[in-house]
Amino acid sequence: MKRLLNMSLMLMAVGSFVFAAGVRSPASKTNIGVVKTAYGDVSGVPSDLYPEVTIFKGVPYAAPPVGDLRWQAPQDPASWTGVRACDTYAAISPQYADQGAGSEPWKTDFYNWGAFPPVSEDCLYVNIATAAQSPNEKRPVYIWFHGGGLRHGWSYEPESLGDTLAKKGIVVVFVGQRLGVFGYMSLPQLTAEQGHSGNYGLMDQIKALEWVKKNIAAFGGDPENITLGGQSGGTTKAAGMVSSPLTPGPQHGIKNMIFESGIKWFDTFKDQAGGEADGQKYLSHLGIDPNASLASLRSLDFKVFLGKDTNDYVANTPTNMINDGYSLKYSTIADAITAGEWKGINILSGTNLGEAIDAVKMTAAEFYAAYQKGLGDLYDQYDFESLITVTDENAADVYRILASHGLNVNLGASYSRSLMVNRVFGPYMKQIYGSSAGTYYTYLFSHFTPSSPEETGTIRDSRNFWAWHSSELWYTFATLQQGIPPARPWTTYDFQLAEIMSSYWANFIRTGNPNGPGLSTWPETDAGYAYLDIGDSIVSHNEMDKLNQLIREVVLSKWGITLNK
User: pTM value?
Assistant: First the structure.
């Protein structure tokens, strides 16, 4: 573990960067042309990066959830005649453009450096990237759910586009869905009308899967080889979806799942009554009668439900999946796993170095005091002060590294963004499912996105944000281009790493195994707790030395998990 800490600390010394433009090779293949769906014919547009890749933008998978369909389960889209030109992205679920104070680097990297998309309740559309030249090629399918919790983001953010994965043989489907108050508000009035309420965004996802199963073969995809994936809030969406009784596992063609920055293993779902109380509280906060009729609530302009500004929206809007007894019937994700909902599904998950907590300032004395409190009796049992030696100069960095490895789950760090939570998940799945468990691979992304010299010491300095939350998306989707975003001076190595990571991801989507020719071996995470460190070098680890044993014990004891030795 000391070697790993030293490797991580070396990343603090961010050196000079070599500027290089991404080189894209032209191709001579033809694209797929007009595609026949169950609701009508559609045409797409060639990718800006690869001529052989076709992008279908704004394909409707459900009817617009407006008017009487606000807070209703999604309905089939209307059919059309002729060829629908799917050359423009659809509006996104209502939200604010500004992510609020302290939202760098997402604000400049993802959201605010280009034109913010139009917002509308009419947002139930998918975008599809495919390099198939004809239907029925049976290429593997990747259904992607964007991050932003359950309240922000959209399906065509610039960091997560499907062009490169499509070029590598994957049919990529990006799902737009209802978010925030329109996707997840529960009310007694709605429960009385429908027998349950909330989870409209989750039901949108399931409707999108139904659409994919019915139509994706026409785009060259295999409806029996589907990977669900997401990042941050997108992992919540994928985990909730595969835990739903409406979407049970492999028999629906869901063979693989990818969880980036959040294997939400221990997430809980509110019960129906708790969701209804939250919904009524939000209406009261907005100055709306919490007992208002559904007709009156559905007649109000959607902007009324967004609050006065982005901070108000973020702080108050309901964004919890509900154990409604219909679309979800478990109190926790762990209950769904134990019940067998995830059996046989191959999983790839991981976290980024530094994203478990923000940068901190602390002395060596404060470092030890924090862990003495957080570790309790384990502090002396493991002789912590001898196990980890820090100085005033490096205490804050070591604290942040240990948070990413999982030692700070009792100290306010994000549990789902800690490596050990991911590492123990593999042997746990093997323990409960035995030979019926799928394969499992985990990673630590430790490469720092480059920052310009003039940003030294600012909020965007790479030495402050390290491998920040969601930064790996530029690499897993290989969307790097010079000038996109303007704030990032991509280097030769950034482009090389994006090629490597997107190949790992494409291999996993295709086979449930990320390994392939020319790639460093990625060991499966099983009893050896192995993981791949993807950074300025790519190295596999399976250390379970004294420090790792301590981290494992902290993680397992926090959630009452027993692993067979």
Answer: 0.93
Q: How far is CA 179 from CA 98, 247, 545, in A?
A: 16, 20, 43
- The torsion angles phi and psi of 113, rounded to 5 degrees, stand at -90, -15
SS3 500: helix
Q: Say if CB 37 and CB 44 are below 8 A apart.
A: no
Name the phi and psi angles at 292, rounded to 5. -60, 150
Torsion-angle region of 202 (φ positive above 0: left; ψ -120 to 50: alpha; else: beta): alpha
CA separation for the pair 28, 11 (Å, rounded): 41
* C-beta of residue 61 within 8 angstroms of C-beta of residue 22: no
Locus of tokens 């490597």: 500
Phi-psi region of 471 (alpha: psi -120 to 50; beta: other; left: phi over 0): alpha
Query: How confident is the prediction for the chain on average, in pLDDT?
Result: 91
Rg (CA), the chain: 23
CA-CA distance, 445 to 514, in Å (whole number)? 15
Q: How high is the pLDDT of residue 115?
A: 79
Query: In the structure encoding, which two tokens stand for residue 372, read together?
Result: 């003495």
Measured on CA atoms in the order 89, 95, 96, 101, is the torsion positive or negative? Answer: negative
Tell me the C-alpha distance between 283 and 157, whole Å.
30
CA 40 to chain CA mean position, Å = 31
Q: What is the pLDDT of residue 1?
A: 47
- What residue has token string 């295709």? 510
DSSP string, 185-229: ---HHHHHHHSS---HHHHHHHHHHHHHHHHGGGGTEEEEEEEEE
The model's pLDDT over 491-523, given as tens digits with 9 standing for 90+, comes to 999 999 999 999 999 999 999 999 999 999 999
DSSP code of 522?
A: -
- The DSSP code for 244 is S
If one counts every other C-beta atom within 10 angstroms of the C-beta of residue 133, the result is 14
CB-based contacts of 392: which residues, under 8 Å, 6+ apart?
Answer: 363, 364
- CA nearest to 153, candidates 266, 303, 4, 314: 314
Average pLDDT (174-196) is: 98
**Residue 169 CB coordination number (10 Å):** 17
By the 8 A CB rule, do 121 and 65 touch? Answer: yes
| Cα angle 242-430-347, degrees, rounded to a multiple of 5 | 40
Q: Residue 479 and residue 494: Cα distance in Å, rounded?
A: 11
Q: All domains of the chain, ordered by start, with CATH?
A: 35-354+440-518 (3.40.50.1820)
Secondary structure (3-state) at 288: coil
| Distance (Å, whole) CA 274 – CA 265 | 21
The three-class DSSP label of residue 258 is strand
How far is 236 from 199, CA to CA, in rounded Å? 12
